[in-house]
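Q: My labmate handed me this sequence with no annotations at all. I'd like to see what the chain might look like in three dimensions before we decide whether it's worth expressing. Could you predict it?
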Amino acid sequence: MGLRMMSTLIGWWIYVLTNDPFAIGLVGLSEVIPALSLALYAGHIIDQNEKRKLLLIGIILYFLAVVALIFISGHFIARHLTNHEIAICIYFIIFCTGVFRAFTGPVFGAMIAYIVPRNDLQNATTWSQGTYLTASVSGHATGGFMIALAGITGTLIATAVLIIISFFFLFKLNPKPASVMKGAVRTWESVKEGLRFVYKTKELFSSLSLDLFAVLFGGAVALIPIYARDILKVGPEGFGILNGASDMGSILIVIILTIFPAKKKQGKKFILAVGGFGICIIIFGISKIFLLSFAALLISGMLDGISVVVRGTITQLKTPDHMRGRVMSVNSMFVNSSNELGQFESGVTAKLMGTIPSVVFGGSMTLLVVIITWFKSPTLRKMEY
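A: Here is what I predict for the chain of 385 residues:
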């Protein structure tokens, strides 16, 4: 929840400082460069080290990043630096959080299988996504309201408090031992083994690839600050609601899937859900009515929730324990980093085409990728678990 509040705040803060959609895209680029560059190495390190320790170190580093942002948001910096210089400082801190995320993101995914028995992994994945999405929507919405009520500094202080609380919860977990003996495998051989496994497991590779391109082109969420302030004119409160809309939809569908799990034709449902997501993005792009925009994002979140649960279940069930760190790192390259790449793509296309055409273009490209996957990946289309 704290990290979602921070990402919501950063998008708004950068746009206030620069009034430039491209500047919002640079936030994603600042984080994705280190996250992508270090992902494969991080997977090797995760498999060779105690996982709870890595996770706690990452949480501490996130806390220090928020403290740095609190300092930057203060009156002292505002008096001595220009808006452009403050934005550069923010980009640098976000770059650092990208380094942290390269390690902490895969650790979270890898630890589920060490906590939950294998027979319960499918249901545990659904619960995991549900709790994550609940935190995500509450973080998005609370971030928007906090900006309006307490300003940037107040929102960052609230974020720091939430991160401290999370540290104490995670500290109570039992240590999670290394998956392989330290030093038993050379780093590059270990990395190649993880990549080969993902590539050869066709259902896994196809689902990750589809998710990558869908999020890359359908990253309309990155431009919500522009829609909220300039197109729909709903201010920070409306910004918070719109930011949380897709996650609200995801939470709703995850609850439904927890009670009534998909038991047949999961692969086909996954592809169709991504296609519906693209259609919703197009509707959001052309809408100038707040309720219609909210509904489009809400339904897009429901469809995205289906794809997240199916893909997450495939990843957990297909991955052997000794390779979880490396596979989850590849997963983070495809899925998590695609959010920031999508944010950058949205910023660039908004700069070149204009905000509305760029969002419509992104949704249309998502539909094209879905059509190609439907015909080119029969293994995924016919997959059931």
